[in-house]
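agent> step 3/5: call structure_predict on target 'NodB homology domain-containing protein' (Mucilaginibacter xinganensis).
agent> reason: downstream docking stage needs a structural representation; sequence fetched in step 2, passing through unchanged.
tool.input:
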Amino acid sequence: MNLPQKIASKAHLKARYILTDIGHKLGFYRRFYQKARGCRIMVYHGICRQDHLKLNTLFITRKTFEAHLKFYKKHFNIISLADYYQQKFSADKFNICLTFDDGFANNHKYVLPLLEQYQIPATFFITAIQAAGYDILWNDFLAMAGKYGPSKITVSDTHYVKNRFNKYISTVDGVNLADELRGCGFEKKRQIMKQLYSIIPFKNRKNDEDYWKQMTPAEIASLAASDLVTIGAHSYYHNDLARINITDAAEELVLSKLYLENIIEKNITGFAFPYGSYNHQVIAAAKNAGYKQLLATDFNSPDDKDDPFMRERFTVNPFISVFNQMCATVKGSYE
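tool.output (status=ok):
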């Protein structure tokens, strides 16, 4: 697609979003939701008070999230992940299941009270990074570095410069440092975090904690105590399991399960692949570790839909209105 085509496509999409908002406000979509049938697992990440795009494109505000919940309650049938797998669907409404990835402390702070207020079930997929001695995921650390760190850094004799999107790019081959690290195990990530901690004093910024801080074991236990909540695993270090050594990936699958089970004193049966990334070896390792529910985003292959353990999920879009999000959720597409 050339530049004029890209501009035209963006303009067309923006116009459609505007028309969708107008149509909702005029009541034209009422019948659309009344007739909607099917099911969808939604994936959220972080919830914050304001400025949801400050560090990444995975957050929405508490106000927007509450608006989602109100819309779900009014128009959809909301079910737990266990009921979704058992296909306990309503035949009269569109069925929605809510999941959260990454284990942010803001999930305990903002999401849990709203779930209890509206009596909505949800599943939270959490890493074991706290057991490794960290209260931040490596990719969120890089986001904080991009926001507050120096314009240039040197890592293992390679120089990186910050681009206009606050990403560190190698001066040698133009590779994004975050993309490079996704293909590595945690040891290299650990070394880089240790090197950069002293020059990135983000922990002094208390107002930014919602954007990176992980749940403590006590918060995980408190979350799990709710009858509306199911806890699942999301790996140990938040590595891309399909890109690291399969032996290391299998170990993460086992250890993250044990970490959470020791905290909540319940069996962990669900696992969400970090970044939605997986392969057949990772699937086999997850099954061997005892997981019964394996959550991706988009399937790698059409054949994956035939695996009773596997389910796709639809990621929330932080750039669009509540009305457009709900419409896209039913359609299963943002196009």
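agent> step 4/5: record observation. The first helix runs from residue 3 to 25.
agent> proceeding.
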